[in-house]
Write a structure and sequence with these properties.
mainly alpha
């Protein structure tokens, strides 16, 4: 089929636009994940620190009481869900849909163990998992937006959300960091491929340690709480 007769994303112009949108949304989501994990890790400095970070993110500085507005969490979670959907739609264009394609990919990885091919494979695997895991997390934040040391720990322990995070943390971290690496190479932001890959692996390990440490902190706090959980109050 010639480029003039190609339709939809098969047309070179639309394919290029789709690539740019996929990369742009991927970068946005990757950078958000890095910030999100650091915001969440404020729990490592104590309940007071996490409480202040949560109130700041919810616009507490614009409130007379200093308490934030949970609706902002709902709005932002809805926005991020839309970005995830857009990113997923464009990413699915390159997703192997037939068993034969998967077999061909596995054969290529076996006989040509190229590092970037392996990264692309894990991008697809984690992307498939995130298609189910991320909406669950975002829907939870949209329907129950209250954030705080006690309320967040209650969700993790008493509502068994830790089981979701155990799967979500490695999948989203691998997908995001290697995604940022691939975007940087694809769009020529650097020619130092091997140095960038080493940096990506270091950042990946760092974020995994940060995320696991934060999750453990929430579990410890949650196990110490008695039901019904009372929201954290500074100075208490």
């Amino acid at each position: 089929m010639s480029s003039n007769n190609a339709k939809g994303f098969s047309h070179p112009i639309w394919a290029a636009r789709a690539d740019r949108l996929q990369s742009a949304t991927g970068v946005l989501l990757g950078l958000f994940l890095i910030m999100h994990l650091h915001f969440e890790s404020s729990i490592l400095f104590g309940k007071e620190a996490f409480y202040q970070v949560a109130q700041f993110l919810e616009g507490g500085i614009f409130s007379e009481t200093g308490h934030g507005y949970p609706i902002l969490t709902q709005i932002f979670s809805t926005f991020m869900l839309l970005i995830v959907i857009v990113h997923a739609v464009f990413a699915l264009r390159r997703f192997p849909t037939q068993i034969g394609q998967w077999r061909a990919l596995r054969q290529q990885m076996k006989f040509l163990p190229h590092e970037d091919t392996k990264i692309w494979f894990w991008q697809m695997v984690t992307g498939f998992l995130l298609f189910f895991l991320v909406p669950v997390h975002l829907f939870a934040m949209m329907t129950n937006p209250e954030i705080g040391p006690h309320l967040s720990a209650e969700r993790v322990v008493h509502q068994n959300v830790w089981m979701l995070y155990v799967l979500l943390l490695p999948a989203v971290t691998v997908h995001a960091i290697f995604g940022l690496y691939r975007v940087s190479i694809k769009w020529g932001l650097t020619t130092q491929r091997f140095a960038l890959l080493k940096l990506a692996k270091v950042i990946l390990a760092y974020l995994m340690v940060l995320g696991v440490a934060s999750l453990v902190a929430y579990i410890i706090i949650g196990r110490s709480l008695s039901l019904p959980v009372v929201p954290f109050v500074p100075g208490s």
